[in-house]
Amino acid sequence: MKSTISIHPQGTLEWKQDRAGRATGSRAKDIVAAIKSGEAAARRDYRIQLGLERLTGMPADDFFISKEMMWGTEQEPFARMAYEERTGLIVKECGFICLTDFMAGCSVDGFIQDGGRKGVWEAKCPKSATHLGYIEADRLPPEHVPQIIHNMWASDAEFADFVSFDPRMPEHLQLFIHRVERDEKVIDEYEAELIDFLRGVDDMVIRLMKKAA
To answer: Can you tell me whether residue 35 is helix, strand or coil?
Structure first.
């Protein structure tokens, strides 16, 4: 997958502009949202948002940051250290990945190398009840599946390590790691869904541009 990597720090205005108009991993669940008939509201709203960003050249996402999200951002470096100590693998941070052949991209939490294989590192630092639920289920949380698939697709990663970290838990329960191997069938199905979604964004922008003319 051809791409360029942004040099702008995550959260800056320049980083937001890099993402504007591009389908990202954090909204992949909206791209694949489906209902029995018609278009799901989440998918429609995201399609309209990307169209608006392309027409104006400005990010339309409000990037609301809750107290829980702030906690997660603050704890991510500690999650990274805990993971590196547990696995012996090094997490390398990366800027926003802008794909060349698709109006899409992703902001991975990091990349890892394991046995010569390229992997995506995705970390969450949720509230304790959610973290405990992840440990008990011992699987990739369904709500994070689309993001993991999108980021593996966009980065050509061979696997992903999903990590949940909570320093408030007893030491042996602070870190949860679940590895997801790349499944080409799943990746291809997601790419087809994404292409259909992006085609919808393109069509909307073209219609609006013709109205303006």
So the answer is: coil
